Structure formats: structure tokens, C-alpha cells
Amino acid sequence: QCPLCRDREEFCVEMFLMGIRIPFRQPTWEENDAFADLGDRHSRCNARECLYPGGREEAEEEGPWELLLCSSCAAEGTHRHCSGLRKSIRSWECDSCAGLGTGMRQS
């Protein structure tokens, strides 16, 4: 369909006249749940040394074993205790986003 007016019929006719072929099926990557992982939230501790007895893949809802995700990229996480974060700390940045000591690691 036309991205501006959303007309489907006239748009397809015009594209055909210009030599642009539009397939009448969904893209194949949408058939196989290729984007299913995009909805998954990061769920592991990326601290150099994870101290949680349950391992990197486990966390608790709150307390020292709460998993905080990087407030900038959300691609890395840490248990509060593994990075020495106090209970009052609500956000955290990974080394990549903070620039290894150059950014604000805790706030």
C-alpha cells in the first residue's frame, strides 16, 4: 500500500507500470518467528565474578540479588551484590556505556 495515503489498488497498479514487482505474501522471515527473540529481556548477570549461589541466570525480585539492567543499553545486567550496589541505587550503567570509569556508573 502507499505509505502516504494507504491506497492499495492504485499503488500496486502504479508500481507495476514502473516495473516494480510487489509480492502478495508476507516476507518469509515473518513466517518462522524470526523476530521472536526481540521481545526477550536480558536476564543474566554480566559481572566479572557473579557471586549469586544460583548462578548468573537466576535473580530475585528485590534485595542484594535483584538484577539491574544497564540504564543506557539494557544489554548487560548485574546483581546488586555482584557490583557492590547499595539498596538505594535505582539505575546502573555497564562498562561499555559508562566508558570504564568515565561515566556515571551509579545514580
UniProtKB/TrEMBL annotation:
Gene: Phf7_1
Name the UniProt record assigns to this protein: PHF7 protein
SUPFAM superfamilies given in the database record: FYVE/PHD zinc finger (SSF57903)
Residue stretches making up the PHF7/G2E3-like PHD zinc finger domain: 40-98
PANTHER family linked to this entry: PHD FINGER PROTEIN, PHD FINGER PROTEIN 7
Origin: domain of life: Eukaryota
A cellular component annotation (GO) from this entry: nucleus
Pfam families cross-referenced by the UniProt entry: PHD_G2E3
